[in-house]
Amino acid sequence: MDEQQQYIQQQLVNILKKPTEKRTQKDLHILINETKNIGFFYQYIQSGDNDIHYKCCKNMKYQYLNQDQIVFQIDSIGSTFYIILQGTVGVHIRLPNQTDLRRVKALETGSSFGELALLNNKPRLATIICESECHFATLEKKQFLQILKEKEEERINNEMGIFAKMPFLKTWNANLIRNLYLNSQKQQYIKGDKLFKEGNEPQEVFIILQGDFAVLQIR
Q: What is the pLDDT of residues 4-37, one digit of tens each?
């Protein structure tokens, strides 16, 4: 990170540490400008929901955690929604009929998590562990529900609906679809990218949401 990036990050941290009622319009302008390309906010800006971005910037707070620190534990009661400003976290879940947790995916800068427990008023479904130093913007449950409840429910239902319409998943019940959705992550590829090679040990299952792939076999 160069000096300019460090300066901008410190500006963001200082503003997010301010009591929300003491943030000036200049503070909000800086927050909005410097977070507009973060994945979570970018999706709303692209769909014309700039007001959501503005309200989040008015109410977000700051949290920092070191590598290997736990953000929250599975089965705990959810009170906070997290947006990763910088860093990577691992998502660890409990598989059916097992007691040990398994890491199923990583979330990186621009990702968000913690919304499901707040939307459904149920315990956390995963343990989240920092895999690097992490800087978060956070929203408390009350503000999250006021600002994001409707839009986040709509987004989640739409994304789960895509899974439910897939022919090979039509016999799955809602809980199985939900578990698949929760433990998946989106990846984008460009023409010419190789997903895997013949003979590789299978590590993942790929579901094509958009685009075409060629399957080639060595003879």
A: 777 778 899 999 999 999 999 999 999 999 999 9
Residue type, 126: A
Identify whether the C-beta of residue 72 lies closer than 8 Å to the C-beta of residue 124. yes
CATH for 3-148?
Answer: 2.60.120.10
**Taking the domains of the chain in order of start, what are their residue ranges?**
3-148
Q: Which of 131, 81, 84 is nearest to 105 (CA)?
A: 131
What CA–CA distance (Å, rounded) separates 52 from 165?
29
User: What CA–CA distance (Å, rounded) separates 68 from 218?
Assistant: 43
Contacts of 72 (CB under 8 A, 6+ apart): 78, 80, 114, 124, 127, 128
SS3 category, 75: coil
* Cα–Cα dist 44/48, whole Å: 6
Q: Measured on CA atoms in the order 3, 38, 45, 211, is the torsion positive or negative? A: positive
Residue 94's DSSP bridge partners are 101
More confident residue, 196 or 185: 196
